[in-house]
Write a structure and sequence with these properties.
Elements lengths: L3 E8 L1 H4 L6 H12 L2 E9 L3 H10 L5 E5 L10 H8 L4 E3 L1 H13 L13 E3 L3 E3 L8 E7 L2 E6 L3 H19 L6 E8 L3 H12 L5 E7 L2 E8 L4 H12 L3 E4 L4 H7 L5 E6 L5 H15 L6 E4 L3 H6 L3 E7 L2 E8 L2 E8 L9 H29 L1
Parallel strand pairs: 1-2, 1-3, 3-8, 13-14, 13-15
Antiparallel strand pairs: 4-5, 6-7, 7-8, 9-11, 9-12, 10-11, 15-16, 16-17
Helix pairs in contact: 3-4, 7-8, 9-12
């Protein structure tokens, strides 16, 4: 398998001090893996010249290096100087970038400072990466035949915008020879050890990379497959996991529920999860909206059964140590009682979060069956 080895360097004292969570490393790594690269390591260092240079020396053994942070106008923004020095490039001032930066500031009624000129220096031979969100441009360079380097700003919104317009198109040209990808399964109803036992017994002897992650109440399984054996590996995992699988790859139960909801409004009367279910659906609706997909309005009913019974909705009620999930659809109500596994209690937040996910799964199963019946009738 032709593997593209990638590494990620995130620069910023605010990261190493714990002041902020390093979301950039996670976001970048997911995108790289989706496009066929394999991410071998993350490294975070402070805004110190000697530490940045040391990190660049350490991370040279790769095909693709993504560096984030340190491209601003202040004295602790040292990334461009360090990258240039490490790869033996002169820093060059770009008059066109300065002119664009001056115009951008004036359009906002601001006056650019001399410090902003710092953002207009780039290593010789590098390509500019446009920033559709902010003023700090990134850059791309290929210091040797076997290494490509992307340098991006630290603010997540700017990084992600630059990725879409500048990085992804270039990676599409760099990575077409990369083979293999991760396949994912989300399981519900068995502990991690049991899920792993099922999968590894079925894949024994195939020499594939397998990963597991317990995320209550789910267990997520991932297997790295190459195109030659993909169908065989997928069939074996499906056979091993059977009815435990509730979602595959990027599927999300909350988004699936909203996509298939038969009414323009979804009312929720929740006496069990203390808004965990409603919050999950709000977040899913926001993600669908970002992707340009329609989703029903989600409303939390204050008066439990009366409001939901008259409309299509979901009603959750506590029953002993479990709950009754009532799905109200135009054709009638469908109920199910669910006891939480592993001794989880609804009196604890972990139990309430788990209950919200079980409620989603119950509702999605019914909607899947409903959709299947409609397709058969048609």
């Amino acid at each position: 398998m032709n593997m593209i080895k990638a590494q990620v360097l995130t620069i910023g004292t605010e990261i190493t001090s714990g002041e902020i969570v390093n979301s950039n490393a996670s976001w970048v790594s997911l995108r790289l893996e989706e496009m066929g690269a394999r991410v071998f390591s993350h490294l975070s260092v402070r805004d110190r010249r000697e530490e940045i240079l040391g990190a660049l020396r350490l991370l040279q053994d790769c095909d693709l290096l993504v560096v984030t942070g340190g491209l601003g106008p202040t004295s602790d923004d040292l990334t461009r100087e360090c990258v240039a020095a490490h790869f033996g490039r002169e820093l060059e001032f770009d008059e066109a970038v300065w002119a664009a930066l001056v115009n951008a500031h004036r359009e906002r009624g601001l006056t650019p400072r001399e410090a902003h000129r710092h953002q207009c220096h780039f290593p010789a031979g590098s390509e500019r990466l446009d920033n559709p969100v902010g003023t700090a441009l990134g850059f791309y360079l290929q210091p040797s035949a076997g290494l490509r380097v992307f340098v991006l700003p630290g603010p997540p919104g700017e990084l992600q915008g630059m990725w879409r317009v500048g990085v992804e198109p270039r990676l599409g040209r760099i990575l077409p020879s990369a083979e293999g990808r991760w396949k994912h399964w989300t399981c519900l109803g068995a502990p991690e050890s049991e899920v792993a036992e099922f999968v590894e017994a079925e894949l024994s002897g195939l020499n594939v990379e397998i990963g597991y992650r317990a995320h209550m109440p789910y267990v997520r399984v991932k297997v790295y497959v190459d195109p030659v054996r993909e169908s065989e590996v997928v069939a074996r995992v499906e056979r091993a996991l059977g009815p435990l699988v509730v979602a595959r790859d990027k599927e999300d139960l909350a988004q699936e529920l909203l996509r298939n909801w038969p009414s323009p409004e979804l009312r929720i009367a929740d006496q069990v999860t203390e808004l965990n279910l409603t919050t999950r659906l709000f977040e899913a609706r926001r993600e669908l909206a970002r992707a340009g997909e329609f989703a029903p309005e989600v409303r939390s009913a204050i008066s439990p059964e009366a409001e939901v019974s008259a409309e299509a909705g979901i009603l959750l009620r506590a029953v002993g140590e479990g709950m009754r999930i009532s799905l109200r659809l135009p054709e009638g109500a469908l109920d199910r009682e669910q006891i939480l596994p592993y001794g989880l209690k609804l009196s604890f937040e972990r139990g309430r979060r788990s209950a919200a996910e079980w409620a989603l799964w119950h509702c999605v199963k019914i909607l899947r069956a409903r959709s299947s019946q409609s397709a058969t009738s048609a």
